[in-house]
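Task card 7
Instruction: Convert sequence to structure tokens.
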Amino acid sequence: MIPVCRLEDLPEGEAIRIDTEPPIAVFHAEGEFYAIDDTCTHQDASLSEGWVENCQVECPLHAASFDLRTGAPSCPPARRPVRTHRVEIVDGVIHVRVATPAPAVAVVAVPMAVAAQVASVPVAVAVEGGAV
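Output:
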């Protein structure tokens, strides 16, 4: 867990940036504390410098907006969510438990006709010293 600041040091409607890799922003909104990745998924802008209202943060660059609870974008131009992190209060200090990144998985759509053709192509394997 990463200690951020004392409760009284983060007033309602404000945010603080933690210089982690990637940076994380901690927000105090509607009586709760939320942590999300600080960089807008539309373009490289700091969300901690945005405007907070109704559990939403608006990016200061192009006005993309993200839900602080889920990280989901709520309006364009952003299409991808930001990662959320767990916030814990221990002895009056705000802490962030950094979420582990989701594994990168590449998904490639292949038309059914192409997939059927590829599946029917015979494959020969040769190894050094002879064929298998």
